[in-house]
Amino acid sequence: MVFTDVLLVEDDQAIVENLTGFLKEEGFCVTAVSGQAAAMEALEAREFALVLLDVTLAQGNGYSTCTAIKSRGDIPVIFLTALGDEFSVVTGLDMGADDYISKPFRPRELVSRMRTVLRRSGRSQRVMKIGNLSVDMVKGTVEKEGREIYLSAMEYRLLLIFLNHRGMVLTRSVLLEEIWDAAGEFVNDNTLTVYIKRLREKIEDDPANPQILLTVRGVGYRLGV
């Protein structure tokens, strides 16, 4: 799995839409529900690495929902709530929550604290597999058939972009925007072609007949495995 699965229990649709879009860009797959009953049904249906939980819900109560979630297993829970007073924070932590973030919150701070909780709980996604490649997200290393291969910072970044959009066709314009952001300088179309070529030379068994990084003619590229 490429994305880290997160359950968002929140009944404010605007927050759901904005947060879902942002978290997707950060490598999270968000399933959103509006109340306690739906949250428990979702947890029965699949496994999640983390739960983001509002205290004030239209259906049910965040504190009781946290207790119910924790009774199923040690799933990390982060409260997201407008109730930021000391009593509410202490109550949430006493209920077993792993962190407590008051609204309004800064999205990047939330992501940082989510990753901290995931690492602390041992649920952080560490290694991704693509064919005969293993990508260690913590160490920032790539192995091919058990042997480490060296990727430049930009080649590694490019590989991560494809990993975080597995199953999707990425246009050259999208890739250029992503690489430009990472490099902090303008990257042109010819440079992207060079990066793709160099990456294929390192990760493919036969770069002339790629099986991992495929060209979708007239559109862009996608992962083939």
Summarize the structure.
With 225 residues, the protein is α/β, with parallel strands linked by helices. It has helices spanning 13-25, 36-45, 62-72, 86-94, 107-121, 153-163, 172-183, 189-203; strands at residues 4-9, 28-33, 50-54, 77-81, 99-102, 127-130, 133-136, 141-144, 147-149, 170-171, 213-216, 220-223. The strands form three sheets. Strands 2-1-3-4-5 form a five-stranded parallel sheet, with helices on both faces.
SSE topology sketch:
Blueprint: E1 4-9, H1 13-25, E2 28-33, H2 36-45, E3 50-54, H3 62-72, E4 77-81, H4 86-94, E5 99-102, H5 107-121, E6 127-130, E7 133-136, E8 141-144, E9 147-149, H6 153-163, E10 170-171, H7 172-183, H8 189-203, E11 213-216, E12 220-223
Parallel strand pairs: 1-2, 1-3, 3-4, 4-5
Antiparallel strand pairs: 6-7, 7-8, 8-9, 10-12, 11-12
Helix pairs in contact: 2-3, 6-7, 6-8
Keywords: DNA-binding, Phosphoprotein, Transcription, Transcription regulation
Pfam family, one: Trans_reg_C
DNA-binding region: 125-225
